[in-house]
Design brief:
alpha+beta, 6 helices, 5 strands, binds iron/sulfur cluster
């Protein structure tokens, strides 16, 4: 099975995913990624757009165009997660290893990392 390519901050999003998203096709693709993750495949940490972004209505020309400066903001968020979890781009880990790392971040720290993400309430419950 090919490694599932995920950008760093989506490692937090997959923990908090509650079936919400930017469009029906976005949610369906996210569910498909989650189904694949249940088989504990390798995850490859990538720079920029990933397998979740590819179905996002805000992903255009390989950039996050959700709002003004969103490309810069999501890259900043990716950088924070890289540093928090001591990751590097190109690194491969099993989903279980990723989950173990992410579980070490208390939900109370998420607002500091994720800022004003509109989905934060689902992740901090
Ligand atoms: S909002 Fe931006 S970072 Fe999030 S999935 Fe869409 S394109 Fe990717």
């Amino acid at each position: 099975m090919d490694a599932i390519k995920l950008r760093p901050h989506h490692l937090l999003c997959i923990r908090g995913f509650k079936g919400k998203g930017y469009s029906e096709s976005f949610v369906e693709n996210f569910r498909e990624v989650m189904r694949r993750l249940e088989q504990n495949p390798a995850i490859e940490i990538v720079d920029g757009g990933d397998e979740i972004c590819k179905a996002c209505p805000h992903f255009k020309n390989e950039k996050c165009l959700k709002s003004e400066n969103s490309e810069d903001k999501v890259r900043e968020l990716d950088g924070m997660v890289i540093s928090k979890l001591k990751l590097s781009i190109g690194m491969k880990m099993s989903y279980q290893e990723v989950s173990n790392l992410v579980e070490k971040i208390p939900k109370s720290e998420l607002p500091e990392i994720c800022g004003r993400c509109e989905w934060i309430e689902y992740c901090t419950k």
